[in-house]
Amino acid sequence: MIKKQDMLIIDCLEYVNWDRKLFEHAKTSGLNIIHVTIAYWENTEETHNNFKKWNEHFKKHNDLIMPIHDYDDIHKAIELNKIGIIFGFQNCSPIEDDIEKIEVMHSLGAKIMQLSYNNQSLLATGCYEDRDSGITRFGKEAIKEMNRLGMIIDMSHSAEYSTLQAIELSSRPIAITHANPNSFHNALRNKSDTVLKNLSQSGGMLGVSLYPFHLADGSNCELSAFCQMIYDTAEMMGIDQLGIGSDLCLNWDYTILEWMRSGRWALKPDFGEGSSDNPSWPRQPNWFEDHGGFQNIIEGLDSIGFNKEEIEKIMGKNWLNFFKKSFQKLQ
């Protein structure tokens, strides 16, 4: 049986209310690199405060974690046996309406930014909107600046035409860090074969998601079905374009779910997909309740027919190769 200790594990999206116990559990579960969300709807000032909170984490838990500012830091984290933390935004709200703030945020450590989060933004259309007008004029300039700096463009929560335009406009391959094919589950956030084929042909990356609203049968999704989805997606996109972006959310109360979905744009909670009369955090599948579930995924991929080299690519090596090409600043 293939063990997590045998391979690099990179999770390219988590939103966790971290404390020492959770850092320790992630480490003992074999996690090497985690892309953490530090902004949803926050403005510039609020995002700066989130950076400060993370700097306190790095001081307090220096034996467990370290920030990733460039590709070399990834190898440093692995050598030091620490979890490398990559900062990312799930929306463009931290830059407000000022393109120069992209470089400011990048200098503070932001390496990944979504162009929209469910709604229409100043840069692109979100996947919940009725009409998809594509990348805006501001968005086209933002893409150029992100390309120059080595900040990854993420279209996980963006609508189809906007995503296809971003793939075409970007001089570097983009990422969809946390989503699944909509042929697996027809959620608004999941992606069409057209998007995934274009993403693959451009050298982009898909991080498959463990968030229950993105899974067939939701919280009751079977491990075998999830791994079969990865197998089928690899057949379509190629094995080198796939990784994990679990979208794991831990240690938050219900009010944070309201914040994620509604921010400040709605007067009452808007829960979108998966809403009910008694909204709450969706239950994770029993085989992926927390970071310990990565070993189950490794075993599931082994059972479905992937060899060790292919599993290593999916669990981390593909993201590692993508970061090597993506993080270098252009001259």
Description:
The protein has 331 residues and is an alpha/beta fold. The protein has one domain: Metal-dependent hydrolases (TIM Barrel, Alpha-Beta Barrel), CATH 3.20.20.140. The chain is globular and about 50 Å long. It has helices spanning 20-28, 44-60, 71-79, 100-108, 137-149, 160-169, 193-201, 223-237, 254-262, 294-304, 308-326; strands at residues 10-16, 33-39, 65-67, 83-89, 110-114, 152-154, 175-176, 205-208, 242-244, 248-250.
Structural class designation:
alpha/beta
Topology pattern, helix = H, strand = E: EHEHEHEHEHEHEHEHEEHHH
Strand content: 5-15%
Which topology does CATH recognise? TIM Barrel
Flag low-confidence runs. none
Integer tally of domains: 1
Q: How does the major sheet shape up?
A: 7 strands, parallel
Distance between the termini: 46 Å
Average residue-wise pLDDT: 95
Under CATH at level 1, the class stands as: Alpha Beta
Query: How many distinct beta strands?
Result: 10
Shape field? globular
In DSSP terms (H or I, runs of 4 or more residues), the helix count works out at 11
Percentage of residues assigned to helices: 25-40%
Q: Which secondary structure elements does this structure contain, and how are they paired or packed?
A:
Blueprint (H helix, E strand, L loop, with lengths): L9 E7 L3 H9 L4 E7 L4 H17 L4 E3 L3 H9 L3 E7 L10 H9 L1 E5 L22 H13 L2 E3 L5 H10 L5 E2 L16 H9 L3 E4 L14 H15 L4 E3 L3 E3 L3 H9 L31 H11 L3 H19 L5
Parallel strand pairs: 1-2, 1-10, 2-4, 3-4, 4-5, 5-6, 7-8, 8-9
Helix pairs in contact: 8-10
